[in-house]
Write a structure and sequence with these properties.
It is a single chain. With 1131 residues, the protein is α/β, with parallel strands linked by helices. The protein folds into seven domains: 31-126 and 812-911, Rossmann fold, CATH 3.40.50; 140-200 and 220-233 and 727-805, no CATH class; 252-427, Alpha/Beta hydrolase fold, catalytic domain (Rossmann fold), CATH 3.40.50.1820; 450-573, VSR Endonuclease (Endonuclease, Chain A), CATH 3.40.960; 587-720, Alpha-Beta Complex (Isoleucyl-tRNA Synthetase, domain 2); 920-1066, Isoleucyl-tRNA Synthetase, Domain 1 (Orthogonal Bundle); 1071-1130, Ubiquitin-like (UB roll). A hairpin with a 3-residue loop joins strand 40 and strand 41. Helix 9 (295-305) crosses helix 10, helix 28 (922-928) packs across helix 29 (931-940) and helix 33 (1023-1033) runs antiparallel to helix 34. The protein binds one RNA strand of 87 nucleotides through helix 7, strand 21, strand 25, helix 22 and strand 35.
RNA sequence: GCCCGGGUGGCGGAAUUGGUAGACGCGAUAGACUCAAAAUCUAUUGAUGGUAACAUCAUGAGAGUUCGAUUCUCUCCCCGGGCACCA
């Protein structure tokens, strides 16, 4: 007998099969049809991957089994050839992608053929073939016609250096994959497909398909259907909260005065008072020895008399700064150091006359250390009434290592800071909010503390009684006009117009008019104000800090042009935060019942509210802007972030009203809220939601433990939301299907006429996109300039192309009728291949079940990579459903059954990639071991749905097995029978048949191996048994089995023979081994007949020597009996 | 951070779905054949102790449920894949 020569056998049979066309599917055959599908490969320059072979072999095995079961099988192949790598290769080398695609697919075809897959090559398709993409374009026109294709502005990744839009895949760590430039976001008009219109059906219909559970889950997660409610929260400017003397919890502020200062002079008492008003505990120690400054002594004094801790802020001036730094140098930790200093350097002014921070500089402090002791360190340059140059301040800031943005010197040469501004600076950049007041005020607002109110009340009443002429007139106008707001749906206090009050006490001031809800103060000034501008400025500044906007009018202005004044006031009201654009914020929640527990609101950093409100009205505008900026950048690198720590910033100065509890709750922005999902805003329920709880704990927000549950729709409207976005369908690339649309100057967007399809891709010299990011097609004037199909006037072609998902969304339909030039496929063929077959002819049974039902059907079995279980699968389901709606396909779903395979990893568990140089070339293996060995190995190496590591050494196992099978030929005898072997083969038929159906190829092969090992022990094997065995092996190793089959004098191919059936009677074991356990441990085994009576088996067990030894004189508590398996005796 | 897989000998992996843990293959060791090697065939091969029969320990770690757990439940650790923190 000849040796097993795989080279000879494999090429021989591949040619023979091609000649006999045994794998060609027959349209409209009477046999039951079976459509098995693999994801058609992208013909990359890397050649066939061992991963392709894994999936192709699996479906090949199933297809071959189906043929042997009597089916008319369609197992097609083609090329998904549009794509980035080919385009990038074209950009790099200037080679025509058409030629590259042809070369690559030629290599792939040859490689695939060398593996003996039973593809119907006569139906080969290619998405880049104009005869194919004509229909892709045609389908796009149908989407357009039905209004499902539209244009929208979308944000894309943009590489500023390459001037090209980037796919997500091409962005690595926020940088362009090719040139490493940081990727920017850009807005661009894009074609979109409205897949969201089908979201609900895409979700629901998963009930009717046979996908692996993980795949269904992935689809459902991606679609992300959730039922919840939208609830509107009113946004308000909270009342200016004025303190009620609660100071215990507030920050301690220590004011250290300067060399010439005492607690009684300069601005110190004023500053102390103002800060105390705002609930802060303020210390103003009288530093000794100010005449002869000794900073160490003074530091000792402070330490002795003033408590300093990490909640302390030291505000210093001049020489006080030196004392403060002495303290910090001693290792004392404080929260913040604010230093007002005079920046005198060089020769500009007489140093000696001005004690300053420059003195401290001369003392050689360790500033790095000092800066670490305070969480914040700010130096604010203030020259008092001295004139200094700003440049000097900047130089000094540099010397101190302080960012120059802290320099508060004013242009051009004067940097004196006035007291209100000083207060402003201390508070504005500080982290202390104005403390909200407890309880209700006279009008539902607190505008001052009770003490001040009592003190000023009488004066207010008097003023109201005796208004000036101007005040009188304006008051009348304000009441009469009511300044009706633009939005009729306004609710609450301002429903009938803005509510004004006159002579209202705010803080320690009495303002002329105020609209509290909008925080607008109107002052009417007499001539006297010209003389006290300074006081007015202070008043204005303080009111501003409290969140008010102030407009001033002169008496005569009010009297002479009252209408003009009213007009100005209404204009101010319009742009104020509570103007027409700012009614509220709608949140989406899946748990509207938890609304009573909502203690704060969180917005996405990109939430539109932030553009609607005046950021100026936020107390921490700078911080908020900074956060938004950081969040914007973060979104570009978030994928690479290892640990996502929750971050956020409160919008200080506005509040939301919980519609259930009517309480004012804080509003935060945080990037754990996505702008794209829901409404980009949530109500946070820390008591019930883990994420909210985490966030609340991090930022010390209150957490309610118990709260009342609400009904589902008590406070909002029930709504169904989907995570799914519409499909961005444009690419500014060359290598894709041109979108068949024309831009006409007169008619606008005009679809290309169907008779003009396909719009072929023109040849270009340069595959680079244009300077402004348009597709390279935009550069070909000859192609771009065209006539409008409607008016025949001047028009331009759309230069965007389609994504490569387009062609792959419907390719399985084209296989049924690949050469049709009248339609994408004939209805006849579609119906035959997609709708379930009639039951098989009488006497025949199928080992698999066929689905029946209205609109049901599709590709019978579709296997592909796990990486495609969301996007590709969803896109093609959407596309198919759209065609079904148009009555163009007979089923509502494209695939009846979907499975996925795991990756093949290189040694060390890495992904195979050309750059790592760890790619396995299947050609070498086919040459050395043979295609049958490679196929067998890939099926044997591990569970099909899991990732497995490639191992070259293990290949020898399957090869040895095939050689053993080959050598068995010499043992074949026609007549003899062997009962033991009959039994084994029947068992193998059952096991292999079953395992193939559930893709447990590895155990199917091990069954076949066990069988050959057993046979090896005998001198002969009957031909019948051997042939059955060969049939079982034939889907795995088609060449070898075909050769032996022909050696056994068969004329027809083994692949056209019938799949063996097993006889259940022959499989029944006559004697069954039963384990006998004592207390759960196996102590003996006994034999029993199948289904023998429980009592008899127990008797046998007790008679066993070993067992009787164990149970002697023991109290048996319990005997557990498992039929045909074990007895467990417990004591 | 979230979701989905997974973790079993020197290695790839089996285990009828709660019932003998380690099928099958690779590798390793010994033997047969051979002048020899390769190939092939035969035997052994989770660990520890024991001449042996056998015993004990072992499925990432720890707990729990159970007569019995690789399998179910909880907590934690590690690896792989995916991602849009999905409210």
């Amino acid at each position: 007998m000849e040796e097993y020569n795989h080279l000879k056998i494999e090429s021989k049979w591949q040619k023979e099969w091609e000649r006999n066309k045994i794998y060609q599917a027959k349209n409209l055959s009477k046999k039951p049809k079976y459509y098995s599908l693999i994801e058609f490969p992208y013909p990359s320059g890397d050649g066939l991957h061992v991963g392709h072979i894994r999936s192709n072999t699996a479906m090949d095995i199933i297809s071959r089994k189906r043929r042997m079961e009597g089916c008319n099988v369609l197992y097609p192949i083609g090329w998904d050839a549009f794509g980035l790598p080919t385009e990038n290769y074209a950009i790099k080398t200037g080679k025509d992608p058409r030629i590259v695609t042809k070369q690559n697919s030629n290599i792939f075809r040859k490689q695939l053929k060398s593996l003996g897959f039973s593809f119907d090559w006569s139906r080969e398709i290619n998405t880049t073939d104009p005869k194919y993409y004509k229909w892709t374009q045609w389908m796009f026109l149908q989407f357009l016609k039905k209004g499902l294709a539209y244009k929208a502005k979308m944000i894309i990744n943009w590489c500023p250096k390459d001037k090209i839009g980037l796919a997500n895949e091409e962005v690595v760590n926020g940088c362009c994959e090719r040139c490493g430039t940081a990727v920017e976001k850009r807005e661009k008009e894009q074609w979109m497909l409205a897949i969201t219109k089908y979201a609900d059906r895409l979700d629901r219909d998963l009930d009717n398909v046979d996908y692996l559970p993980q795949i269904k889950l992935a689809q459902r997660n991606w679609i992300g259907k959730s039922e919840g409610a939208e609830i509107e929260f009113k946004i308000i400017h909270p009342t200016p909260a004025l303190p009620e003397g609660k100071g215990e919890e507030s920050t301690k502020i220590v004011i250290l005065h300067g060399k010439h200062g005492t607690p009684e002079n300069y601005f110190y008492p004023w500053l102390k008072k103002e800060l105390e008003k705002r609930s802060h505990k303020v210390y103003l120690p009288a530093l000794p020895n100010t005449e002869v400054p000794n900073d160490e002594e003074q530091a000792d004094y402070v330490l002795k008399n003033v408590p300093l801790d990490e909640n302390t802020v030291i505000v210093t001036h001049s020489f006080g700064g030196v004392v403060a730094m002495r303290l910090l140098e001693r290792g004392i930790k404080i929260r913040e150091l604010i230093l007002f200093a005079t920046p005198i350097t060089g020769t500009f002014l007489d140093k000696k006359s001005r004690p300053s921070i420059t003195d401290a500089l001369a003392k050689g402090f360790n500033y790095e250390k000092i800066k670490k002791q305070a969480n914040f360190f700010r130096v604010i340059f203030d020259s008092g009434d001295t004139i200094v140059r700003k440049e000097d301040a900047v130089i000094l800031a540099k010397n101190l290592g302080i960012y120059s943005e802290y320099v508060k010197a004013k242009e051009p040469h004067f940097c004196a800071i006035e007291e209100p501004e000083m207060l402003n600076l201390i508070l504005e950049e500080n982290t202390y909010p104005l403390t909200p007041s407890q309880g209700e005020g006279e009008f539902g607002y607190h505008t001052t503390d009770p003490k001040t109110w009592r003190a000023l009340q009488e004066r207010v009443l008097e003023m109201r009684k005796n208004p000036t002429e101007a005040e009188k007139k304006l008051w009348r106008y304000l009441r009469k006009n009511n300044l009706t707001p633009a939005l009729p749906e306004r609710k609450g206090e301002n429903a009938d117009g803005y509510h004004f009050r006159r002579q209202q006490i705010i803080d320690r001031f009495i303002v002329d008019f105020v609209c509290l809800s909008e925080k607008l103060v109107i002052e009417v000034d007499g001539d006297i104000h010209d003389y006290k501008q300074k006081e007015d400025k202070e008043r204005t500044d303080i009111l501003r800090i409290l969140g008010f906007k102030i407009i001033r009018f002169k008496n005569e202005e009010v009297l002479s042009d009252t209408d003009g004044v009213i007009k100005k006031i209404s204009e101010e009201l319009k742009v104020l935060p509570f103007g027409e654009d700012l009614g509220g914020v709608t949140v989406f929640t899946t748990r509207p019942d938890t609304i009573f527990g909502a203690t704060y609101m969180v917005l996405a950093p990109e939430h539109p509210l932030l553009s609607r409100i005046l950021l100026d009205t936020l107390a921490n505008k700078k911080e908020v802007l900074q956060y938004i900026e950081v969040a914007r950048k973060k979104s570009e690198i978030e994928k690479t972030a290892e640990n996502k720590i929750k971050t956020g910033v409160e919008l200080k100065g506005i509040k939301a009203i919980n519609p259930a509890t009517k309480e004012e709750i804080p509003i935060w922005i945080a990037d754990y809220i996505l702008a794209t999902y829901g409404t980009g805003a949530i109500m946070a329920v820390p008591a019930d939601d883990m994420r909210d709880k985490e966030f609340a704990e991090k930022f010390s927000l209150p957490i309610i433990e118990n709260y009342q549950k609400a009904g589902f729709e008590d406070f909002g409207k029930k709504i169904t939301k989907f995570k799914l976005h519409d499909w961005i369908f444009s690419r500014q690339r060359y290598w894709g299907e041109p979108i068949p649309v024309i831009h006409c100057e007169k008619c606008g967007l005009v679809p290309v006429l169907e008779k003009d399809l396909p719009i072929k891709l023109p040849k270009v010299k340069n595959y680079q996109p244009t300077e402004n990011g348009e597709s390279p097609l935009a550069n070909i004037a000859k192609w771009v300039n065209t006539k409008c199909p409607k008016c025949k006037g001047k028009a331009k072609r759309e230069t965007d192309t389609m994504p490569n998902w387009a062609g792959s969304s419907w390719y399985y339909l084209r296989y049924t009728d690949p050469k049709n030039s009248k339609a994408f496929a004939s209805q006849k063929n579609l119906k035959y291949w997609l709708t379930p077959s009639l039951p098989p002819p009488k006497g025949e049974t199928l080992s698999f079940s066929l689905p029946f039902g209205e609109g049901q059907g599709g590709v019978d079995w579709y296997n592909g990579g796990n990486e495609h279980t969301t996007l590709h699968l969803l896109y093609s389901r959407f596309w198919h459903k759209f065609l079904f709606n148009l009555d163009l396909v007979p089923t509502s779903e494209p695939y009846i059954k979907r499975t996925s395979h795991g990756l093949i990893l290189a040694k060390g568990g890495e992904k195979m990639s050309k750059s790592k140089g760890n790619v396995i070339n299947p050609d070498d293996i086919v040459k050395i071991y043979g295609a049958d060995t490679l196929r067998l190995y890939e099926m044997f190496m591990g569970p099909f749905d899991q990732a497995i590591t490639w191992s070259e050494e293990a290949l020898i196992g399957p090869r040895r097995f095939l050689e053993r099978v080959w050598n068995l030929q010499s043992k074949v005898q026609k007549k003899e029978k062997n009962i033991k072997i009959e039994f084994l083969i029947e068992k193998a038929v059952k096991k292999v048949s079953y395992d193939i159906e559930v893709m447990k190829f590895n155990t199917a092969i091990s069954t076949l191996m066990i069988f050959t090992n057993e046979i090896g022990k005998y001198d002969f094997i009957s031909q019948g048994v051997y042939e059955k065995f060969l049939k079982l092996l034939s889907p795995f190793a088609p060449h070898l089995t075909e050769e032996i089959w022909s050696n056994l004098k068969h004329k027809d191919s083994i692949h056209l023979s019938y799949w063996p059936k097993w006889d259940e009677n022959l499989i029944k074991d006559e004697a069954i081994k039963i384990m006998v356990q004592i207390n759960g441990k196996v102590r003996a085994e006994i034999f029993a007949q199948a289904d023998e009576k429980e009592e008899d088996v127990k008797k046998k067990a007790f008679l066993n020597e070993n067992i009787s030894k164990y149970i002697a004189e023991k109290d048996i508590k319990k005997i557990i009996y498992v039929k045909n398996r074990l007895i467990n005796i417990v004591f």
